Q: What sequence folds into this?
């Protein structure tokens, strides 16, 4: 009887232990599988391939401008940080026509077309002009602007864009885009750490914020890239809405106008303090023209053309010291002269459009134009563009 009871007790203990061990084994296997998955992912890095795959230009139309969204739920868009994915979804990824002269437009939010519809951007307006070269090729413009003031950002985009058979680059810039102190303060740039580190090692740019924090090993695992994977999938899905509506940018019904009554301060509006070689005087070496030179040399080495454009700014009539909220007159005028001198010394095709637009045609910032003004300004670029082609 006692033996029977002991057997039953042992059996009960065994069952109890199995109830504990079985789930524990499952947990251990799951953990080991998770570790193995992340280890394989770390070595293979599949997103390098996945980011080049896209429903755009195949199942849905390619985008007319690079993905950027303040209000992603309302604009069938998403702010993506991978340049390969951004360009794979753009119309520039379509095959180049035999009679096409392909022009890439680089720049900030003014080129991208903030507060404008895709059909109202500078590239779209220029395409409607149906420009032709003497040899009959059709000039087609591609909007690769992005809403950040940084020529390093432009250089990183240009590095990728050169794989898409451009014939010419239009590089729009302004003083705030060439502050060496403010080049790296953007998530898009920080996400290109490896490419930027390679450029910095080769060219030694004057970047106040370098070195950036290097991504840790976890960021190369499946767990570390889970957000990037989710965003890739979301971006493909919102392409359906984009294809059906052509809406990629939610334009608010009310737009706060730019500041018109500017102060008499003589300080530039910068994120980080910038040092000058001479007080209240800008010379070429103070600015990030070294970054632009590298990009323009890349283009030249491929036998292609570049046109550098100093883009329009709002000009206040209420201040003796400042042109606008961004720029004191001494700084902006010094920048214009520095850019002119640099362009002349380097042999760049250059056009200064700083005052090409009436002050009453700017919208929310000192750089953004109304739709009609934007198209009129774009049309004014056609002559210097064609002149630069033949330079």
A:
């Amino acid at each position: 009887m006692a033996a029977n009871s002991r057997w039953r007790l042992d059996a009960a203990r065994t069952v109890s232990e199995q109830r504990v061990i079985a789930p524990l084994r499952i947990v251990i296997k799951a953990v080991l599988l998770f570790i193995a998955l992340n280890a394989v992912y770390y070595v293979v890095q599949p997103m390098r391939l996945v980011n080049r795959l896209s429903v755009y230009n195949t199942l849905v139309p390619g985008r007319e401008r690079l993905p950027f969204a303040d209000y992603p739920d309302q604009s069938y868009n998403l702010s993506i940080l991978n340049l390969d994915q951004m360009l794979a979804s753009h119309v520039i990824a379509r095959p180049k026509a035999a009679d096409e002269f392909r022009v890439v437009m680089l720049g900030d939010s003014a080129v991208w077309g903030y507060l404008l519809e895709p059909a109202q951007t500078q590239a779209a307006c220029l395409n409607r002009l149906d420009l032709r070269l003497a040899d009959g090729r059709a000039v087609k413009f591609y909007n690769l602007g992005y809403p950040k003031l940084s020529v390093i950002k432009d250089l990183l985009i240009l590095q990728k864009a050169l794989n898409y058979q451009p014939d010419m680059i239009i590089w729009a810039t302004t003083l705030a885009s060439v502050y060496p102190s403010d080049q790296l303060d953007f998530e898009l740039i920080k996400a290109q750490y490896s490419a930027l580190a390679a450029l910095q090692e080769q060219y030694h740019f004057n970047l106040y914020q370098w070195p950036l924090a290097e991504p840790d090993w976890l960021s190369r695992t499946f767990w570390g890239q889970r957000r990037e994977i989710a965003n890739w999938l979301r971006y493909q899905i919102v392409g359906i809405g984009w294809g059906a509506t052509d809406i990629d940018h939610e334009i608010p019904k009310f737009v706060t106008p730019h500041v018109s009554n500017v102060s008499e301060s003589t300080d530039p509006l910068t994120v980080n303090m910038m040092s000058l070689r001479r007080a209240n005087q800008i010379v070429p070496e103070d600015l990030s023209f070294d970054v632009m030179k590298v990009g323009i040399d890349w283009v030249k080495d491929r036998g292609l053309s570049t046109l550098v454009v100093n883009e329009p700014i709002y000009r206040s009539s209420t201040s003796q010291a400042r042109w606008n909220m961004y720029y004191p007159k001494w700084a902006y005028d010094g920048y214009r002269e520095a850019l002119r001198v640099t362009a002349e010394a380097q042999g760049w095709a250059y056009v200064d459009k700083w005052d090409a637009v009436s002050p009453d045609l700017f919208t929310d910032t000192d750089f953004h134009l109304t739709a009609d003004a934007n198209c009129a300004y774009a049309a004014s670029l056609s002559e210097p563009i064609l002149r630069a082609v033949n330079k």
In short: The chain has a mean pLDDT of 92. The chain has two domains: 1-44, 53-389. Residues 99 and 137 are 5 Å apart (CA to CA). The chain is about 40% helix and 5% strand.
